[in-house]
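Dear colleague,

As promised, here are the two records you asked about, laid out in our usual form so they can be pasted straight into your sheet.

NAME FIELD: protein one
SEQUENCE, THEN STRUCTURE:
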Amino acid sequence: MKEMMKRCLSLGFSLSIVVLLRIRGVNTLSSDSSKNAKLPELPPPPPPRPISGPMLEIPPMSVVSGTVVRDGGRFALRHADGTLCGLDSAGRAWSFEGEDVKISGYVNPESKLLHICTIEEVDGLRAEAV
């Protein structure tokens, strides 16, 4: 029984190789024609398409100052007038929690978050940059 299964598996494997080679256009029965057989040529790649649509605009860099505070589960910058601006770089802001800082970054108009490029204490003792 095992011998019969081995023969069936080897026959199936051999047939699948022959079918694949035939699909590619290689003749396995004739050794002369296989030496001279060419693989089919691939069509040339399509030309590059021009970029369409509006170009993404980079928002202007802002420099803001205030105190880093927690606002729920995230960090925010509290301005002198008491308004909060969310910070999207919590990994950088946590070490400045409760301190007065100056932040250079970009305000994301969709999420209304300030992306921190640089953050430094107002007295200038500590600073982090990108």
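NAME FIELD: protein two
SEQUENCE, THEN STRUCTURE:
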Amino acid sequence: MKVAATRTMTYTTVGGSDQQKLTIRVGVPYLLQDGDVDFAFTPGTAGCAVVYEGLEEANVGDVYGADEVQAIELAVAGIDSNLGRLRNKYEFYFESGEPYSEAE
């Protein structure tokens, strides 16, 4: 995967103190080709991979949009949503140690 953006964070289980590293990588958007997906799409439809290294249960796979710009917009917006879904189990922090408030 060719990477467009990376975010490095740490996380703990709620109430825990053992910090784990989490690296989130957003791939460069790509145009879909026949056989890439199992749904119908129009020319110009794009995908964007999002990979969560260090927290397997966070991985959701590729995100798709009407074009490359929308694919990357949805991929980036989905990070906050995805981490928010896990906040009852984990606490997330920027590398600075500040809480990752977007996940709230």
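A couple of things worth noting about protein two: The CA atoms of residues 71 and 77 lie 10 Å apart. The mean pLDDT is 94.

Best,
R.
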